[in-house]
Amino acid sequence: MKIISIFIAVLLAVGVSAQDLLKFEVSAGNTDRIDCPVSLSIDQFNYNTDSLKLALFEVKGKTETAVPFQLETASGAKLWFILNGQTLKNTKRTFILRKMLSPQMFKSGISAVQNNDALNLFSGEKPILSYQIETVNPPKGVSPLFKRSAFLHPVYSPGGEMLTRIQAPDHYHHYGIWNPWTLTFIGKREVDFWNLMKGQGTVRFAGLISQVEGPVYTGFKSLQEHIDFGAVGADAVAMNELFDVRVWNINNQRYMFDYASTLNTPLDSGILLAAYRYGGGIGWRATEKWTKDNSSVLTSEGKTRKDADGSNARWCIVDGESGTKEGSSGILFLSFPANRMHPEPMRVWPMDANGGRGDMFFEFCPIRHKDWMIEKGNDYTLKYRLIIFDGKMTAEEAENYWQAFANPPAITILKY
C-alpha cells in the first residue's frame, strides 16, 4: 500500500507541476517575418496564480524549446514574445502556453539605467538611446529660450554610430528625435511650441509614469507638457502628452523601438494644430556628418531625397555614411495605419538645405496638409516604429518590417 501511495503522490505532483493552457499557431501570412513582436490575449486565464507560473514553448516535431515572453496587463492581459529569426511567408509555427512550478527564467535583454539627467537604455554594454529628463541649456551666449527637456538623444546604431544631433548652430531648437507642434492656435492666438526663439511655448518633461524591463522589451512612459507662455497669468499647460517608448529585444544586428504619443488638452476651447510643413508626429535631426553627398532617402512610394518632401508614405529609409565597419548606418521609420493622414505626409529637407550642404532632417508630419483640432475630453494617438541599422536596408526588408508593424502575424488557437 505504501508503494502505491507514493506512486499516486508522484503522479499528482507531475500533474500539478505542468498544466497545458492552450496550443496555438502563428501564421506568417503572405509576407516574410524577421524578429517580429507578437502578442496573445490571455484574459481568459488566471495568470496571477502564485503556485504555478506561465511558460511558453515552441514545438517542432517532438522538440519543445522554451521561449522568452513578457506580460502586459495595463489594458487587458497580453503575452508578448518575439517570433525570432526568419519566418517565411505562408508558413506556420506552433506554440504551447503552460503553467509550471519552476519554468525557465530569462534575463532582461535591454537594461534601463537612470542618472540625474536622462534615462539610458542599453543592449548589454552598448548604448541604444537616452531620454532627456533634465532641461538642457543652449551653449553659452545663445538665448536661454532654446533650453528644453523631453527628447531622445543620443540615439545609436548597433555599431555605435551616433545618429542624432541637438542644438545645431543653424537650428538651436532641434533636439535629436522629438515632436513639438509648430503653428497652433488657442482661440485666435498663435502658440509655437517648435520655434523656441519666439518665446511662445515649449515642451518639458513632467515625470516618469512607469518603467518596465524584461526579456522581450524594455521601455518607459512619461508625461510631457506643452507649455503656453502667453496664457493669462502663469504659464499654462496647453496639452498633456503620454510619451511611450518600447525597445524590443531582437538581435544585436539591428535595434527596434516603438514610439507612441497620446495627446489631450485641458483647454475648454481646445487647441488647433494648423496645417504646416513642420509639426508633431516624429521629427529627426540627423548626425552632422550627413549631407546631400553622403546620405539618401527611399520611401514606400519609391520617392528619394529629390522628391520625398511633401509626399506621403507608409515607411521611409534614411541612411548615410558612418564610421562603422559596414560604412553606413540609418533608420527606417514606420507609420502605423491608424495614424492621422496615413500614409503620412513627410518633411524631408531638400538637397540645398542649410546653405547648399543638404543636411538631413526627416519628419512624419500628420498636419502638413490639413488642420487638426484637439478637443477637450478626447485622446489622440500617433504610433511609430523605428528600425536602426548599419549597412544597407532593401525596400523589400522595409516593407516586411512595416507589414509586421501594421499587420502582425495571425494567431489561431488549436487547443484549450
Q: What would you say about this model in short?
A:
The chain contains two helices and 31 strands.
Structural summary, described in words:
With 416 residues, the chain is mostly beta strands. The chain has 2 domains: 2-105, Immunoglobulin-like (Sandwich); 110-406, Beta-galactosidase, Chain A, domain 5 (Distorted Sandwich). Helix content is 7%, strand content 48%. The chain contains 2 helices and 31 strands. The strands form 7 sheets. Strands 17-18-19-20-30-26-25-23 form an 8-stranded antiparallel beta sheet, covered by helices on one side. The protein is globular. The two termini are 36 Å apart.
What value does the average pLDDT take?
A: 94
The assigned CATH architecture of the largest domain is: Distorted Sandwich
Question: In terms of structural class, how would the helical and strand content be classed?
Answer: mainly beta
Q: Cα-atom Rg, whole angstroms?
A: 24 Å
Work out the helicity level.
under 10%
Q: List the uncertain runs.
A: 1-16
CATH fold-level label of the largest domain: Beta-galactosidase, Chain A, domain 5
End-to-end gap: 36 Å
> Can you tell me the overall shape?
globular
Strand order of the largest sheet: 17-18-19-20-30-26-25-23
Number of domains: 2
Counted by DSSP, the helix tally is 2
User: How would you characterize the largest beta sheet?
Assistant: 8 strands, antiparallel
Kindly estimate the percentage of residues that lie in beta strands according to DSSP.
Answer: over 45%
| Strand count | 31
CATH class of the largest domain equals: Mainly Beta
